[in-house]
């Protein structure tokens, strides 16, 4: 009987040892496991919801109603894009032209504020997305940055993208002027594809956090040490296209001291992945969906 009991203890001990070895191997080679263990031992920081061009899945992008809806959905940030008009006024529009999101045609930089403020920036949405169409979206106007700041103030934080700085001369100084006018330095973050533009803004107002937007054509598993070091001279984080990154990329970026805010994450399966990977937040057209995912992952 003693012999059988000893054999049983030996059998259990071997399997416990094998399980420990298996978990150790998984921890060593799986970023996902490392992230989850870290979350259990040391809870992750807040995961931020960034409403991409407002709640643009439900309302015309970069308009006051899209921002209002995002705030109603408890977003942390409203993300918006700025370009300069011909008379150097920052207006909120994504494309370099007004063709896609208004009833007019031409480059933003070729219109004065008076001209651009007459365009219908909402009807296109009703035509393209009839399931979310609303009468109030007809004849919406392209807002100025000043109008957005006046309307929402410190009610929400802002993630502002500087678009095409080569065509928008002095845009960084004009943006900073508006931020200071409304005392919003503590409520604004800025991102851009242009490293030069972010560096210019950093030299003007180093108190505002900056994020480098990047686009990858192929799957990426890590960021080079040299690029990380370069980024950290002006930015606090990186915003990659979600479809080309993975858990290893997120783990390496965060371990290097960078925040990670991928874009644009609209499907629940990808939202779940992003939270599991340990991102600091995501850009999404559907802030209500992502808030629900964050809530469910806390259970």
TrEMBL record:
<keyword id="KW-0812">Transmembrane</keyword>
<dbReference type="InterPro" id="IPR030395">
    <property type="entry name" value="GP_PDE_dom"/>
</dbReference>
<feature type="domain" description="GP-PDE">
    <location>
        <begin position="47"/>
        <end position="294"/>
    </location>
</feature>
<keyword id="KW-0472">Membrane</keyword>
<protein>
    <recommendedName>
        <fullName>GP-PDE domain-containing protein</fullName>
    </recommendedName>
</protein>
<feature type="transmembrane region" description="Helical">
    <location>
        <begin position="9"/>
        <end position="29"/>
    </location>
</feature>
<dbReference type="Pfam" id="PF03009">
    <property type="entry name" value="GDPD"/>
</dbReference>
<dbReference type="InterPro" id="IPR017946">
    <property type="entry name" value="PLC-like_Pdiesterase_TIM-brl"/>
</dbReference>
<keyword id="KW-1133">Transmembrane helix</keyword>
């Amino acid at each position: 009987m003693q012999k059988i009991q000893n054999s049983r203890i030996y059998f259990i001990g071997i399997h416990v040892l094998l399980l420990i070895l298996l978990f150790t191997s998984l921890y060593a080679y799986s970023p996902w496991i490392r992230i989850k263990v870290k979350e259990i031992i040391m809870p992750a920081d807040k995961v931020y919801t960034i409403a991409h061009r407002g709640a643009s899945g439900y309302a015309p992008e970069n308009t006051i109603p899209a921002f209002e809806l995002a705030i109603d959905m408890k977003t942390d940030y409203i993300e918006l894009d700025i370009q300069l008009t011909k008379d150097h006024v920052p207006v909120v529009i994504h494309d370099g032209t007004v063709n896609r999101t208004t009833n007019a045609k031409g480059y933003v930089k070729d219109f004065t504020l008076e001209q651009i403020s007459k365009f219908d920036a909402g009807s296109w949405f009703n035509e393209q997305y009839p399931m979310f169409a609303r009468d109030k979206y007809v004849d919406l106007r392209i807002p100025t940055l000043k109008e957005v700041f006046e309307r929402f103030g410190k009610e929400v934080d802002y993630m502002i993208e500087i678009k095409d700085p080569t065509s928008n001369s002095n845009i960084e100084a004009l943006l900073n002027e508006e931020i200071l006018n409304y005392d919003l330095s503590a409520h604004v973050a800025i991102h851009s594809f242009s490293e030069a533009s972010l560096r210019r803004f950093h030299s003007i107002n180093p108190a505002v956090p900056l994020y480098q937007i990047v686009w990858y054509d192929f799957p990426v598993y890590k960021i080079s040490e040299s690029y990380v070091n370069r980024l950290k001279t002006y930015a606090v984080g990186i915003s990659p296209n979600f479809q080309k990154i993975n858990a290893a990329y997120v783990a390496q970026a965060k371990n290097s001291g960078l925040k990670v805010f991928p874009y644009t994450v609209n499907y629940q399966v990808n939202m779940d992945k992003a939270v599991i990977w340990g991102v600091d937040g995501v850009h999404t057209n559907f802030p209500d969906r992502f808030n629900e995912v964050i809530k469910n992952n806390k259970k």
